[in-house]
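Box 3.1. Reading complex inputs
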Amino acid sequence: MMYDFLVDLFGNSTAASIIAGTIQSILPLFAFILPFALFAVYLERKVSAHMQDRLGPMRTGWHGWKQTIADILKLIQKEDIVAKDNDKLLFNLAPIIVFAGSYAAFAAIPFTSIFIGTEVDLGIFYIIAVTGIVVAGILMAGWASNNKYSLLGSMRSVAQIISYEIPTILVALSLVMISGSMSLHTLSEQQTGYAWNWYIFGGPGTELSKFLLIPFMFTGFLIIYISTLAEVNRTPFDIPEAESELVSGYHTEYSGMKFAMFFLAEYANMFAVSAIVVALFLGGYQSPVGYLGDLFNAPWLIPIEQFTWFTIKGIFFVFVQMWLRWTLPRLRVDQLMAASWKYLIPIAFVNLIIIGLITLL
Amino acid sequence: MLAMRTEEMVLNMGPQHPSTHGVLRLELVLEGEIIINVIPHIGYLHRCFEKHCEAMTYPQIVPYTDRMDYLSPMGNEFGYAVAMEKLLGIQVPERVEYIRVIMAELQRISSHLVALGTYGADIGAFTPFLYCFRDREKILSLFEMTCGARLLYNYIWVGGLSHDLHPDFIRKTRDFIKEFRPNLKEVNDLLSHNRIFIDRTANVGILPVDTAINYGVSGPNLRGSGIKWDVRKEDPYSVYHKFDYDIPVGEGKYGTVGDSWDRYYVRVLEMEESCKIIEQALDQLPEGDVQSAIPKRIKPPVGHVYARVENPRGDLGYFIISDGSTSPYRVKVRAPSFVSMQVLNELCKGYMVADVVTILGSIDIVLGEIDR
């Protein structure tokens, strides 16, 4: 969609398509991911500080708003340390793969009805597949660091991400059954109207099946939210980088900009998974209360409103992730696995079957 | 099926590690993530305290005792003072004893707050850590008001105290206790009865009673195993017999008696008991001069003495041999952390790497005291 728009803008030639393709692929990075990551790091510091009876950064700028910018500048200038016994190739490749994985997920996330990196019909499938690449990057980082703590951390991380992908997929599958589409854009479009048309409230429609679905949709929502927490390694599932045991897990040996890439990927991922949850269950970019653009007959306003709603919803879930992080202790590896295999996966399966039966009604 | 060749991995934990509580090095022998053996290597903080004492006069030793268990300097000074007074045969004024008890109990609260906070941080809950430190700051301010120092006080001298109480001390201490009780409840809600915290600590690192006694474990670690044994009650010193307080013991509320949660929770309950003692001591505090009994020149008779006190980490004992001169012939300290650390290997076998952190935090050691 955006691609067609850009190609038209540059006058429909081969050169135009190359330019359009380039712009389209870099735009989300500079327009959204980088500013968001900077903001999220700042938010995390402030949220944690206020939860802990502190103030957080206060010196750099008004209430310390320039702090993360200063940090990124510092990280860029830092020496890039590579230890003698590291596997150089894998060590350098790992942060790129991790970052690319979380960045690529943004391509299929519908920010508004017109601004989508690329409209993939298999949006859900694509995102799950592409974020799976992150696992490889993490394992490479742990292995190449040649550090036992990093290796333990990355092994745990891989086991964790793979186990928690299953309940995520099962819940996403139940939505695919209801909506009949794997495209996040279509899913968001179906949830148009008001908040009660969101899938968490059983989706659009007024027939009996909508009301039967509500409790199962709530269960599904909880399962997918918990699993996504584990997939982005947030507390109570932050075992891969459990700083009290493993120093900082798979990125212990990284410094400077390579460390910053892991860091950036982590925060980009936090938003990406929140965005998926929002698109599946909470109406995506749809407004819960109608649009000002409709009210004032100004169609150009609608995409802006949609973008705002989407970002607000996404950031709200990022905030909940932070809230949990600064409240809960972390689980142990075996408890974490038990939580997934003994509880989440069976519940998700039953949930899937029941939702399937209801849709047959 | 083809047998896969596996080998044990040796993981070096520390001395620079976030949760070894100081400069302790643990050599972990692992099978996957399961612990086969834990070998602690100590001595990174060795400062020759005991040998050093032989070259110093008796009053000069007091500030050095501060540096052993640096989270409980008042307790260390108290123990030394009790031992020296027994050797010299002096009776100190009542007021001195009361102030010493108040200080030791405040110190017990502050030390347990660090233990609780860092324990939470070890398990991944960072917020209770800051709540605990916020309250500890208030206690340190009380100490600062009394003797000018926040960490190493040199306050309890042989035969007396370095300063009398600040005029505001009693009021501020009462205020602190009033503020502290609700805060303690907050920490309990946030951490002690949190389901994840319980899952991590209950039934982990169980210390059976006979093992604890065989190793000579004391303090909250022993009481966590269900034995009501406290030097303050069993071998009373100072004026502890005048107060009404309980000795909390582990009951295995969420798991087995003697697990990490019990040891942790004994500390929480002890803080409440310390509050009770402080309140009673403040009510009964007699008037008097705190320096009247300080001897001008300390030259004890030839002989030896052993005295012990209940420190936040357990039974702290001083063995002092005097040859009749102004410095001791030999000083030996029984450090409770050193004894507690010996059971680490027994506790950790069969658990996972993450549990080593849990267990190490639950026995609450201070390396300054282990290495001396």
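In summary: Chain A has one domain: 78-360.
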